[in-house]
């Protein structure tokens, strides 16, 4: 998949540079778009890593909240027992 993507990028770059040469000017915005397209697989991979990390952190927060809530309920039970 990555090789195919790189091949497409190389073909696009060659064609775009040829068009610029034929037209007699360059468009920096189009070159920037092509460079961003070349980086797309890296961004997708990073996004997947961040999504996994986000899920892991959400689960960790759930566990910690349960721990804190269970301690709070125990202390309130102790408080009730002491009041009696």
Q: Layout of helices and strands, plus pairs?
A:
Layout: H1 2-23, H2 28-83
Helix pairs in contact: 1-2
Principal-axis shape equals: rod-shaped
Helix content: over 70%
Oligomer: single chain
Note the run of SSEs as H and E.
HH
Number of beta strands? 0
Q: Uncertain regions: pLDDT < 50 for 5+ in a row? A: none
The overall average pLDDT, rounded, is 86
Straight-line distance between termini: 70 Å
Roughly how many Å is the radius of gyration?
Answer: 28 Å
Strand content: under 5%
Task: Give me the secondary-structure category.
Answer: mainly alpha
How many helices in DSSP terms?
Answer: 2
The major β-sheet equals:
none
How would you describe what is shown here?
The protein is mostly helical and about 80 residues long. It has helices at about 1-25, 30-84. The model has no long low-confidence stretch (mean pLDDT about 85).
Supply the key terms:
84 residues; 2 helices; mainly alpha; 0% strand
Please outline what is shown here.
By secondary structure, this protein is mainly alpha-helical.
């Amino acid at each position: 998949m990555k090789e195919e993507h790189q091949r497409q990028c190389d073909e696009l770059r060659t064609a775009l540079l040829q068009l610029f040469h034929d037209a007699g000017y360059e468009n920096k915005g189009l070159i920037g778009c092509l460079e961003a397209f070349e980086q797309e697989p890296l961004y997708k991979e990073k996004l997947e890593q961040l999504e996994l990390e986000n899920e892991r952190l959400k689960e960790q927060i759930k566990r910690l909240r349960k721990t804190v809530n269970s301690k709070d309920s125990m202390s309130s039970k102790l408080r009730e027992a002491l009041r009696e």
